[in-house]
Design a protein that fits this description.
The protein is mainly α and 302 residues long. It has one domain (13-301). It has 13 helices and no strands. The protein is globular and about 55 Å long. Mean pLDDT is 88; it is low at 1-9.
């Protein structure tokens, strides 16, 4: 392989992963214009159009064999049914958070998600925590506790976003499927309920689709594309990168969401919230730094 070809291969993974996280980081810009539509209705459009988009992608790529195998496994279908529920909860809450002026707190949920994953590994899978992991989780807990006491309210949006996505990832580990096929199965399982809800809303006249400016109707249809494309980019990047590298790149998304919340949407970010975030950032730096050092030591040995 030529040097140019090697450089191209080595750049592809980070570019794909960064593209995925950039898309996710820009999501508030996509959902904000739809703020007049209830989050549940937006979710149903997201599910329906995502299902149609991934069905087309499966036909074009002829990648339906793993999906067909999964459909023959009742246990896997059950796990994906629960993971679909977790994903629906996460999507609905995130859309509602953005459109109710809680972008900053939503970003917090995705900052603490890696540490929630570590905690779930300990509580659910019985994995042992290293000393650094335990300190990192403790710092995140201290940050959440500080914001709860200083602001007088538990940051429940962030905690529920982190927990729902953490359990979603845990379930997907128990029934792995490639990204496209996994999204297809999840959206296909949700499709009957989502399509039924939209049909009911259309019949009783309370649905928004078709009664909006053309641009907003197009955004509801486009929700399927903006859901699937980052996932496909992520899958392409994840195949080419170590988990350590992927773990460092993932902070692009919540950082962009935080900046959008503070700088564009003028959400509050006073000293109390800043202090809580600082505890969490310290835990993330410690956790990410230790993961990076462990990876570098392993790379030297090999």
């Amino acid at each position: 392989m030529s040097a140019a070809s090697k450089d191209s291969t080595s750049l592809a993974g980070p570019l794909y992963a960064a593209g995925a996280y950039l898309c996710w980081g820009l999501f508030p810009l996509y959902w904000k214009p739809l703020h007049a539509i209830p989050a549940l209705e937006i979710l149903c459009h997201r599910v329906v159009w995502s299902a149609l988009f991934v069905a087309l992608a499966l036909l074009v790529s002829k990648g339906y064999a793993p999906l067909r195998a999964a459909l023959d496994d009742p246990r896997r279908i059950m796990i994906f049914a629960v993971s679909s529920l977790m994903l629906s909860l996460n999507w609905t809450l995130y859309i509602w958070a953005v459109n109710s002026g809680n972008v900053v707190e939503a970003s917090l949920g995705y900052f603490i998600n890696p540490l929630v994953n570590v905690l779930l590994g300990r509580l659910v899978l019985g994995e042992r925590l290293t000393r650094i992991q335990a300190i990192s989780v403790g710092l995140a807990f201290a940050g959440v506790a500080w914001m709860t006491v200083s602001l007088g309210v538990l940051p429940w949006i962030a905690l529920l976003l982190a927990a729902s996505f953490g359990f979603y990832g845990l379930l997907r580990k128990k029934a792995p499927l490639p990204s496209l096929q996994g999204l297809a199965l999840e959206t296909f399982l949700m499709f009957p309920l989502a399509a039924g809800f939209l049909l009911w809303k259309g019949i009783d006249g309370s649905g928004h689709f078709g009664h909006l400016p053309v641009a907003l109707d197009a955004m509801l249809v486009g929700a399927g594309v903006v859901t699937a494309v980052p996932l496909l980019l992520f899958a392409s990047g994840a195949r080419r990168l170590t988990l350590t590298t992927l773990g460092l790149i993932q902070y692009i998304s919540p950082t962009m969401q935080l900046l959008l919340g503070v700088l564009l949407y003028n959400e509050a970010f006073g000293s109390e919230r800043l202090t809580g975030f600082a505890f969490i950032w310290a835990g993330l730096m410690l956790y990410s730094g230790s993961s990076l050092l462990a990876y570098l030591r392993k790379a030297r040995r090999t």
